[in-house]
Design brief:
This protein has one domain (10-180): Thiol Ester Dehydrase, Chain A (Roll), CATH 3.10.129.10. It is 23% helix and 40% strand. It contains five helices and seven strands. Strands 1, 2, 3, 4, 5, 6 and 7 form a seven-stranded antiparallel beta sheet that branches.
Length: 182
């Protein structure tokens, strides 16, 4: 059960999705009626200058609303009153999509949240000598730009196989308001 008394400023609600594939985007295109081929056809996406298919904006937006629907148990404990987001970066196949909402204010039964949707895009895994052990789609297709490097979005970390290079960037920032039922 979700109660106002259980929430405090700074609390974070979080969801992660690691299953973005071309097949999923094709199913979404069919279900949504948005059959723009930049979402389903690499050749068309490349001709449009995208280096490969990108997820529909409303596809990733749906994970934001899902975060609140799951948290509120589909209306059992409250409702989503308002959401305002700005789609700033592309979401691609293979990305880990992390959606977080941080409580910034509570007034009565309303909870005001800052929303951030981040993508983690794996590039490659290298051994200690810098040899590529595994390359992901982002590395193969050149998704990482000089701008990503300049902005400090490209990072590394140790994993079991070696050193993972990845990009972490905010795709969608915004705000939301939920109202709880008590």
């Amino acid at each position: 059960m979700v109660k106002i008394s259980d929430l405090k400023v700074g609390d974070i609600i979080k969801n992660e999705f690691d299953g973005i594939t071309r097949d999923l985007l094709k199913m979404y295109a069919k279900a949504s009626g948005d059959t723009n081929p930049i979402h389903t056809n690499d050749v068309v996406a490349e001709r449009a200058g995208l280096k490969g298919v990108i997820a529909h904006g409303l596809f990733s937006y749906g994970f934001i609303t899902k975060l609140f629907e799951d948290f509120l148990e589909h209306g059992k404990y409250g409702m989503l009153i308002e959401i305002n987001v700005s789609m700033r970066a592309m979401v691609r196949c293979g990305d880990l999509l992390i959606t977080e909402a941080k409580v910034n204010k509570i007034e009565g039964k309303r909870v005001y949240l800052d929303v951030v949707q981040t993508t983690i895009t794996n590039v490659d895994i290298k051994d200690k000598d810098g040899n590529i052990i595994k390359q992901f789609e982002a590395g193969e297709r050149g998704y990482i730009s000089d701008k990503d490097l300049e902005q400090g979005l490209v990072k590394t970390k140790e994993v079991d196989e070696g050193i993972l290079t990845y990009r972490e960037r905010i795709a969608t920032p915004g705000t939301a308001i939920i109202e709880l039922i008590e």
